[in-house]
Write a structure and sequence with these properties.
Elements: H1 3-16, H2 22-36, H3 41-56, H4 58-68, H5 79-94, H6 100-114, H7 119-128
Helix pairs in contact: 1-3, 1-5, 4-5, 5-6, 5-7, 6-7
């Protein structure tokens, strides 16, 4: 899998987080990985590790997003944009091997693919506040 495909998969799982309780989300994640049939075990391991990292930092990520946005607290954001922002911000703050411009660009590309017509500019604007 390419890094973009891996990131796409992480987004798809992370998006589900807002719709389920802890047990339901775990079941959703397990089902996703069961359906994924990753070519390489390392890809699945990387995805699981990154997802766990994002979820462990969720309070800090949401706090940082809420501090840097005006009139757009995480509770008001669309679920697609929120999942993308959490993933992008995690990469900006905690993944030293991913250049900042790559993290932002990949988040923008996810927003273009999964979001509304204006999602990509919103995601870009919010993440730019962390650069």
């Amino acid at each position: 899998m390419t890094r973009r495909e891996i990131r796409d998969g992480i987004f798809l799982i992370l998006f589900r987080y807002e719709f389920y309780d802890e047990e339901g989300f775990r079941l959703q994640s397990d089902q996703f990985f069961s359906d994924l049939a990753a070519e390489k075990k390392e890809d699945e391991d990387y995805m699981r590790k990154k997802l766990d990292g994002i979820l462990s930092k969720l309070p800090e990520l949401d706090k940082a997003l809420n501090e840097r946005t005006t009139h757009w607290k995480t509770s008001r954001m669309g679920k697609v944009e929120l999942a993308i922002l959490r993933l992008g911000l995690y990469e900006l703050l905690y993944e030293e091997d991913i250049p900042n411009n790559v993290a932002v660009n990949e988040a923008v590309e996810l927003a273009k693919k999964y979001g509304t017509e204006d999602s990509f500019s919103f995601v870009n604007g919010v993440l730019a506040k962390f650069l």
